[in-house]
Amino acid sequence: MAPDETDDDATPDFVSAVRGSWSSALPGLDTSPLDVLGRISRISALSVQRLNGVLATSGVSRSEFDVLCALARSPQPLRASGVTAQTMLSGAATTKLTARLEGLGLVQRRRLERDGRVVLLSLTEEGRALVEEQFPRCVDSDRRLLAGLDDGERAALAALLRRVAANAERHR
């Protein structure tokens, strides 16, 4: 079995330990939502750590890479507000990150001709090449996190998480 796989769903994990601590600290409180949301948070944090490792040699951070990916997915240049909406970064962070990426020659800024106040962002050839090189490595890292799940389990998990995500979007 690969080191990333487990065949024992009942193996105690970090979230189980946290729930045990809460049951001692606040007896009677139903902490069962942590079984799902605590694990989602934990998986997210661990995934970010892994992606930072994958991207370490690229010269960009995960947040910078998120900006590059938002631009790579778009068929046309984006306003900074569009990048902010896609990445869930703050407007200030988007401005700071795009300035750094422009300095690295990965992003180009240009003013909209009909309204000079609007700045459009797009990838340079170097930025697109970086995304095309690094994104498959990031997907492979994600794939390793899903080791041990068959196609049906992955589809079921994705469908359930889609419902949780929809609830989160409705209640933000």
Provide mean pLDDT, rounded.
Answer: 91
Largest sheet: 3 strands, antiparallel
Q: Helix and strand string, N-terminal first?
A: HHHEHHEEHH
Any idea what the radius of gyration is?
20 Å
Give a written overview of the molecule.
This protein is mostly helical. The protein has a domain at 78-146: Orthogonal Bundle (Arc Repressor Mutant, subunit A). It contains 7 helices and 3 strands; from the N terminus they run H-H-H-E-H-H-E-E-H-H. It has helices at 14-25, 33-55, 62-73, 80-87, 91-103, 125-145, 151-170; strands at 78-79, 107-112, 115-123. Strands 1-3-2 form a 3-stranded antiparallel sheet. Strand 2 and strand 3 form a beta hairpin. The relative contact order is 0.11. This is MarR family winged helix-turn-helix transcriptional regulator. GO terms for molecular function: DNA-binding transcription factor activity. It holds the Pfam family MarR_2. Residues 30-166 form the HTH marR-type domain. It comes from Sinomonas puerhi.
Properties at a glance:
172 residues; Arc Repressor Mutant, subunit A; three-stranded antiparallel β-sheet; disordered N terminus; WH_DNA-bd_sf; MarR family winged helix-turn-helix transcriptional regulator; WH-like_DNA-bd_sf; MarR/SlyA-like; DNA-binding transcription factor activity
Give the SSE map.
Layout: H1 14-25, H2 33-55, H3 62-73, E1 78-79, H4 80-87, H5 91-103, E2 107-112, E3 115-123, H6 125-145, H7 151-170
Antiparallel strand pairs: 1-3, 2-3
Helix pairs in contact: 1-2, 2-6, 3-4, 3-5, 3-6, 4-5
